[in-house]
Design goal:
By secondary structure, the chain is α/β, with parallel strands linked by helices. The protein is built from 10 helices and 15 strands. The chain has 3 domains: 85 residues, Winged helix-like DNA-binding domain superfamily/Winged helix DNA-binding domain (Arc Repressor Mutant, subunit A, Orthogonal Bundle); 110 residues, D-Maltodextrin-Binding Protein, domain 2; 95 residues, 3-Layer(aba) Sandwich (D-Maltodextrin-Binding Protein, domain 2), CATH 3.40.190.
């Protein structure tokens, strides 16, 4: 069954005249007649009763007409959707972020990408770096931004971005808050509220040894900050994040908490135009200057931005 055969039959069902149907379809009358005959042979029965001056649909033709019309309409819709998708650069731009990467690093770039590619749906997901690597390999993600990636792959393209400055997020009722900036040794016996797979928290635990009050891990920054707000522990998070309410971001001394950030994609894989455009933007502006205005109101965040340049 060919789509042009269905189109010819539908035109003929409207006019019940082979000559007018052929003109409507832009083909010769013999070509249309042959196509209709082949279509009937394929279906196993006549669709048109050919009578001079009284051509009409057969019972089979009348029964199949609604289904063939629906089939043709669906095919036209599929073709139109595909054309629009290709012309407008549509698709899903799937981006993976490791838990401690601040999404505001992307904000200005995504605003421009969604303006340039209005048909693109942007999908963000958070996972540990090792999981993001597997998702890149399997085509689940087009781009990943992480602090680091273990188990590197030969086809993995990686570009260094601006480093992320980390700070300790602490409840203002915690006595340590009065001693800001806080020496890292003062975090002994403090419960650590951590994002899953956060290398900076791992670094702190190694430095403190057994002198910490245990660790609890969470998938989302919101959960970590909510528990810090309840004074259930302290957290090492990107300094660019803006605390609110009873939570403050305080600089740490005695240990370097600057983490490298990398942009990753798979080499040689065909990408959405929007993905390529975003990669170009992130490589040319790795610090995410679209969010620098936030730093003007937060000295700690401003210091982090300067340090990462």
């Amino acid at each position: 069954m060919e789509m042009h055969q269905i189109r010819y039959f539908l035109a003929l069902s409207r006019s019940l005249n082979f000559t007018r149907a052929a003109e409507e379809c832009g083909v010769s009358q013999p070509s249309l007649s042959r196509a209709i005959k082949q279509f009937e042979m394929h279906l196993g029965g006549e669709l048109i009763q050919r009578e001079q001056g009284l051509t009409h649909l057969t019972e089979l033709g009348r029964r199949l007409l609604p289904s063939l019309q629906k089939c043709y309409d669906n095919a036209v819709e599929v073709q139109q959707t595909a054309k629009t998708f290709t012309r407008c650069g549509g698709g899903n731009l799937r981006i993976g972020l490791s838990p401690s990467v601040d999404v505001r690093r992307l904000a200005g770039h995504l605003k421009q990408i969604t303006h340039d590619f209005p048909k693109v749906d942007v999908l963000l997901r958070r996972d540990p770096p090792a999981d993001l690597l597997e998702q890149l390999k399997n085509g689940v993600l087009e781009i990943a931004i992480t602090e680091s990636l273990d188990g590197r792959w030969s086809r993995l393209d990686s570009w260094p971005m601006a480093s992320e400055q980390f700070a300790v997020f602490i409840n203002k009722a915690n006595p340590l808050f009065q001693d800001a900036p806080i020496d890292v040794a003062a975090l002994s016996n403090q419960r650590l509220l951590s994002l899953i797979g956060c290398p900076q928290t791992e670094k702190l635990i190694v430095h403190l040894g057994s002198d910490h009050g245990g660790r609890q891990e969470f998938e989302s920054t919101e959960d970590v900050l909510a528990l810090v707000a309840e004074d259930l522990g302290v957290a090492i998070l990107p300094a660019r994040m803006t605390p609110s309410g009873d939570v403050a971001a305080v600089a740490l001394t005695g240990l370097n908490f600057i983490g490298p950030v990398y942009l990753h994609a798979i080499s040689g894989r065909k990408r959405l135009a929007a993905a390529s455009a975003l990669i170009d933007r992130l490589r040319s502006d790795p610090v995410g200057r679209g969010t620098v205005a936030d730093h003007e109101h937060n000295p700690l965040m401003l210091a982090a931005a300067v340090c990462s340049l």
